[in-house]
Amino acid sequence: MKWVGLIAVLFTGGLLLSAVDDFPYWGNAESPANDSVVSHYYIENTMRDTGVPNMVTAVLADYRGFDTMFETVVVLIAGIAILAILRVMNQTPGGAKPSPPHAIGDHHDIIVGTTCRLLVPVLQLFALYVIAHGHHSPGGGFQGGVILGTSFILLALAKGLNPVLERLPEKRYVKLAFVGVAIYAGFGVMCQFLGENFLDYGVLHVLMPASDAAQARSHSMLGVEIGVAFTVSAIMFAIYANLSSKGELEGGL
């Protein structure tokens, strides 16, 4: 079976490499991506339509809002699939057990613990910055969610999984993952209630402190990015927690 897998990988890799010559040269102005009518529209009208200087975020969260919403759903489904496969339900209730106390002077408490106490607040603050400024500078919900999830994983690596689960138990991070998708879809549903298409944010200026449709689109993109961040950070930590503890949510690495 290993030989079959190796042959399949080599064959597929050969097909992919054979298509490299068909790619346009780097920076080619006449490439399909650069010469498309759609690309020209984004470049010329993004600021006017959305009031957002970051064209990438505008495309992802506004022009291609359906696609990004279902990408977030895919992240949620991936996390639920891992939970369904790996999660081992304990027979005795009570949630996460506290980790055993360290002896005074333990190097884990002094070096690793102190480093984490210094790094984790900075990571979480930077994650919030990336989320909040994603539609004005490089960043967004996916990037900020990954950084936020990493901060919890760092704590679990340093202090053990159980102390982190006391602050972010399983029920809570699963709820956060679903809440993130609900926030994203909620913006679309509000647009429909106001008589416009799903995720057509411009109409939301009647509900927001926005002067016009473009500003409403900008505010709405921030809202959906927050939803994306909730889902991504929760699923990241859920995947780590189950993989590191073989689905038992105790001990960890």
What's a quick, concise take on this entry?
The chain is mainly alpha-helical and 253 residues long.
Detailed description of the structure:
The structure is a single chain. With 253 residues, the protein is mainly α. It contains 9 helices and no strands. It has helices at residues 2-18, 37-50, 55-63, 65-86, 107-132, 141-159, 161-167, 170-193, 213-244. Helix 2 crosses helix 3 (55-63), helix 2 (37-50) packs across helix 9 (213-244) and helix 5 runs antiparallel to helix 6. The chain is globular and about 55 Å long. The two termini are 31 Å apart. The model has no long low-confidence stretch (mean pLDDT 86).
Which regions are unreliable across 5 or more consecutive residues at pLDDT < 50? Answer: none
- Distance linking N and C termini: 31 Å
How many helices? The count is: 9
Radius of gyration based on Cα positions: 22 Å
Mean pLDDT: 86
> Major sheet: size, sense and barrel closure?
none
Q: Strand share of the residues? A: under 5%
Question: Which H/E pattern describes the elements?
Answer: HHHHHHHHH
Shape: globular
Give the oligomer, counting copies of the same chain as homo and different chains as hetero.
single chain
Proportion in helices: 55-70%
Number of strands: 0
Output the structural class. Answer: mainly alpha
